[in-house]
């Protein structure tokens, strides 16, 4: 990652959610296409269900055909068989396999030979109602079973419920067809035989079981006409006849009631002939509308996915370019600031986001650099002024020392000249003999030299006293300037200490910010772990829901098998006659219980399916949250690296300012030592003046014979000194060649000081 540029890193950071979005978009489009393709394949199952429903409709119609419409009814049955075979072949071509559907289809095919025999007997006029029940009724029931099972194999819940309602409507119609001829026989005064009575019970069970299902799953356009018929006079007449039919105790022929029964049954059959095709048409229209809706959803999802992907790509490149441009501008300004360019302001400092925070942080460093430069300039100016003051004081001190040395050597030369010339005022005036001339001369010279020594010592004491005063005055001036220099250095040291404290505080705060960023990264990683645990828990819940769905499917299959067993038991009980009547009632109750179990299992399966969808959506959302937290953790890690670099730079700046502060403190200490030495020199000058006064006091106690010579000597000794002071330029000019070597010595002494 360190070898990649920031723009490439931003591309890599945004690539993962972009790829995830593309994957989700492709998955959504693919899911929509799969739903469309699956429903398109299931249209074959729906076609098979419609073919089975048509068989369940046209077979009973042939059973009730009259000689006038018998040919049309038979033609409809033959066309229905051809349509059923074609639908079953298309169903098998898709590789489908279902034992219930195949058994029902094979049962219908097995009744074709019996159908031919039944038609032959009908044409011969030897038709039997039992033959219709044995041939047509099982084939019609098998057609209904095709409708029921086809609805069970369709995954689309709405379409499956519509087919189940269609199946229930045909079962109700089947129950009415079963009861029609039995009612005619009953009103002719003939009691029902056991087999016929068993079918009557079966018809009652069909009507009571499937009427609520029909009302639940079919639209109001179908249910309202059916309910209106049942509440009308024909429906009430059929209800009364069914009650008598269940009693199976005819009092004799009842032609009026029989006519009413026939009329009401015909009206019911006519209504069913209208409702069943209408329901089939609505089913086909709904399935086609569902298919068109899925196709539209697939196209819309594809267009939206492509459009959103293009918009996201555009926004992504725009944002990455904007962010990288701002960061490059800030980094370039930081490099220029590091190179010494402190005049240009930091860009983007007025923004309220993280870029603005970074720019403001760099602005703080720029202001600190400007302040440091100002302090460095002030410190350099103070140091230069202090150096100039020191050189000026040194030059003045050297000039004064040279002047005093010249005056002292001049006075000493004059005193030595006067002393070496001899004073002829001594008591030995006459000349000795030549051999003693040297002794007199030596004596007179010794006396004169002694007097001159005493006078010279007094004069020297006076000169030393004056010179020590001048040195004391110069030392005071030097002490004041040294104190001013020490005060300036002290202020400079205080300013540097303040700068060092500010830089140290900045470094400490940068370290605290770095710790906060590290804590933020740790919290983000912990949140990622929590999201991972949540994903695991949601996946376990989804797995448990799938297991529950499988168990519900097993329960539904058990209920269906129980229903078939109960139906077979009812048929067997009907065949047993009066002895199996109680067992038939029990079998009917078992069938109703199995049907309720199947309905409950379907509802539970529907709820579990909704739960699985919600859990899958929750898993997707939690995955998205985990991806967002991972992106946040990567950004926090990048900020942490920048904060580490800033903290290191602040620490290095703090160390450098500490070294500068140490050097200034060392200069302050040296200046303080210089001030102390100046004070010591001032004290030494005062001590020298005091010693000169003491020496003059001691010389005043000596006697030289008369005071006049001493006074004269003093009087004659002062003017040369005054002349030297009044005309310093000639004295300096004449003395400079003689003191060149002494000046070097004096300068070395001052440098040492």
Describe this protein's structure.
The protein is mostly helical. Among the domains are: 6-314, no CATH class; 390-421 and 709-753, no CATH class. 89% of the residues lie in helices and 0% in strands. The protein has 16 helices and no strands. The chain has helices at 6-63, 70-93, 99-110, 112-124, 129-153, 157-187, 194-217, 220-231, 233-247, 255-338, 354-421, 434-576, 581-699, 707-726, 728-735, 740-752. Helix 1 (6-63) packs antiparallel against helix 2 (70-93), helix 6 runs antiparallel to helix 7 and helix 12 runs antiparallel to helix 13 (581-699). The protein is rod-shaped. The two termini are 62 Å apart. 25% of the residues are buried. The model is unreliable at 408-419 and 708-753 (pLDDT under 50).
Give the gist of this structure:
By secondary structure, the chain is mainly alpha-helical. The protein is 89% helix and 0% strand.
List the main descriptive attributes of the protein structure presented here:
753 residues; mainly alpha; rod-shaped; disordered C terminus
Give the uncertain stretches in residue-range form.
408-419, 708-753
Beta-strand level of the residues, as a percent range?
A: under 5%
Order of helices and strands: HHHHHHHHHHHHHHHH
How many E strands?
0
What form results from the Cα inertia axes?
Answer: rod-shaped
Computed Rg: 65 Å
Tally the helices: 16
Roughly what is the average pLDDT, rounded to an integer?
74
């Amino acid at each position: 990652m360190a070898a990649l540029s920031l723009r490439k890193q931003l591309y890599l950071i945004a690539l993962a959610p972009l790829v995830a979005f593309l994957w989700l978009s492709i998955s959504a489009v693919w899911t929509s296409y799969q739903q469309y393709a699956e429903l398109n394949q299931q249209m074959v199952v729906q076609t098979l269900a419609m073919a089975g429903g048509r068989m369940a409709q046209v077979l009973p119609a042939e059973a009730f055909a009259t000689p006038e419409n018998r040919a049309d009814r038979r033609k409809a049955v033959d066309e229905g068989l051809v349509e059923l075979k074609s639908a079953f072949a298309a169903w098998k071509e898709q590789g489908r396999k279902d034992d219930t559907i195949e058994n029902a289809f094979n049962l219908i095919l097995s009744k074709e030979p019996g159908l031919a025999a039944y038609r032959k007997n009908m044409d011969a006029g030897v038709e039997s109602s039992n033959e219709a029940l044995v041939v047509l009724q099982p084939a019609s029931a098998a057609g209904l079973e095709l409708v029921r099972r086809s609805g069970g194999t369709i995954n689309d819940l709405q379409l499956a419920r519509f087919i189940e309602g269609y199946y229930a409507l045909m079962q109700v119609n089947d129950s009415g067809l079963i009861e029609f001829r039995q009612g005619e026989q009953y009103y002719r005064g003939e009691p029902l035989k056991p087999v016929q009575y068993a079918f009557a019970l079966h018809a009652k069970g069909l009507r009571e079981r499937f009427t609520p299902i029909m009302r639940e799953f079919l639209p109001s356009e179908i249910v309202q006409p059916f309910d209106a018929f049942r509440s009308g006079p024909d429906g009430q007449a059929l209800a009364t006849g069914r009650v008598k039919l269940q009693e199976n105790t005819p009092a004799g022929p009842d032609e009026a009631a029989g006519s009413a029964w026939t009329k009401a049954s015909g009206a019911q059959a006519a209504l069913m002939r209208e409702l069943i095709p209408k329901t089939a048409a609505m089913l086909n229209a709904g399935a086609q509308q569902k298919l068109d809706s899925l196709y539209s959803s697939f196209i819309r999802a594809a267009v939206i996915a492509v459009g959103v992907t293009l918009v996201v790509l555009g926004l992504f490149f725009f944002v990455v370019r904007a962010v990288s441009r701002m960061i490059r501008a800030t980094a370039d300004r930081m490099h220029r600031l590091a190179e010494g360019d402190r005049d240009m302001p930091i860009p983007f400092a007025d923004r309220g986001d993280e870029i603005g925070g970074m720019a403001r942080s760099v602005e703080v460093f720029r202001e600190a650099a400007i302040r440091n430069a100002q302090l460095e300039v002030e410190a350099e100016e103070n140091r230069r002024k202090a150096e100039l003051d020191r050189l000026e004081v040194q030059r003045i001190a050297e000039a004064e020392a040279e002047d005093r040395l010249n005056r002292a050597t001049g006075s000493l030369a004059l005193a030595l000249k006067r002393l070496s010339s001899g004073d002829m005022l001594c008591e030995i005036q006459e000349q000795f003999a030549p051999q003693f001339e040297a002794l007199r001369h030596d004596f007179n010279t010794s006396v004169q030299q002694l007097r001159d020594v005493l006078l010279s010592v007094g004069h020297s004491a006076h000169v030393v006293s004056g010179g020590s005063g001048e040195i004391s005055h110069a030392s005071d001036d030097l002490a004041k300037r040294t104190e001013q220099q020490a005060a300036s250095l002290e202020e400079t040291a205080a300013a540097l200490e303040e700068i060092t404290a500010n830089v140290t505080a900045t470094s400490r705060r940068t370290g605290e910010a770095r710790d906060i960023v590290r804590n933020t990264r740790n919290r983000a990683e912990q949140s990622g772990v929590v999201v991972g645990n949540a994903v695991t828990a949601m996946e376990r819940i989804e797995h448990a829901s799938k297991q529950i769905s499988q168990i519900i499917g097993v329960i539904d299959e058990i209920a269906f098998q129980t229903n078939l067993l109960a139906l077979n038991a009812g048929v067997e009980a009907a065949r047993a006659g009066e002895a199996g009547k109680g067992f038939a009632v029990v079998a009917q109750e078992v069938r109703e219980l199995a049907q309720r179990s199947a309905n409950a299992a379907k509802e539970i399966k529907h709820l579990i399916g909704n739960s699985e969808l919600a859990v899958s959506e929750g898993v997707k959302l939690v995955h998205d949250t985990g991806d967002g937290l991972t992106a946040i953790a990567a950004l926090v890690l990048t900020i942490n690296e920048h904060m580490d670099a800033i903290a290191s730079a602040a620490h290095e700046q703090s160390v450098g300012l500490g070294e500068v502060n140490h050097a200034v403190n060392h200069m302050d200490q040296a200046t303080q030592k210089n001030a102390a030495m100046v004070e010591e020199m001032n004290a030494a000058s005062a001590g020298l003046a005091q010693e000169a006064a003491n020496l003059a006091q001691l010389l005043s106690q000596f006697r030289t014979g008369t005071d006049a010579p001493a006074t004269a000597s003093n009087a004659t000794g002062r003017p040369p000194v005054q002349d030297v002071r009044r005309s310093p330029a000639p004295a300096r000019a004449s003395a400079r060649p003689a003191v060149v070597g002494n000046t070097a010595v004096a300068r070395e002494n001052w440098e040492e000081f």
